[in-house]
Amino acid sequence: MKNAAFGLILSAVALTACGHTPTTVALKGGWVSPPSASTCVAQADDGQEPPFIRNCFGNFDRASAIAIAYAEWRAWGQVVYDADPKDEGPVDPNTKAERQPGFWQRVGLYWWLGMNESNPTSAWTGQHDASGVVFSPDVDGSFAWSAAFISFVMRMAGAGPSFPYAESHSVYINAAVEESLNQSGQYAIQAEAPNAYAPVVGDLICFGRNGAAALTYAQLPAGRYTSHCGIVVAKAPDQISIIGGNVEDAVALTHVPVTDQGLLAEPDGTVLDTRYPWLLVIRIAYNQ
Question: Which residues form the signal peptide (predicted)?
């Protein structure tokens, strides 16, 4: 898997153009014009943006997003999680990876860089609230960081204001649906039905959780709800590989079955994966 990953990254890099002309915009209060999918967006001074992002050292490209996701996966020990969560027993809170030295800080980095400056969750870590108080492992569901991880990957890849960073996946799921319906161009994302579009590397795939597990694509957008998304990092004839955050309290890679056409669901909407009720694909308009 590791050699295939590096091969994919190098191939993607070879296809990525470097030249660009920045357009300056102001964050948090809107921008002069919506960002183009093929244009790097130099941004106004913002504490959440490292200089290489803020000053537009590179374009928002697919190769970077994939490479960043793989780098974080390797940092967490290259966890592969293909089990059915319904078959898993309780986890010893003392062994949760997200609370271990070096890893709770890394989760804090996802929160700090993934969220916008005004969002109080940007101060959270894998075991601290915004005041620095260590929260109990029993309530870590209230500090779920999977959406922070995706937001971190998108920001570090150079998405700028073309991605709606949020602590809940449902925010950018709904934003992608709105973009598909209205074509406003506010964000460089669009929603696709799981039985109509085959995800490619760099796309996000998402499912509803808990009370939203029965949610269907036709019911979107649907307000705030619990959900999960992963970024597609590899494709094979019968499966795709995704990387997601807060999977078994770590960054993990999961294999997801697809049809012969590469779809997550059959024409009648039946999802192939018996573990997760895949809801949609978020297609991202990277600079390619």
Answer: 1-19
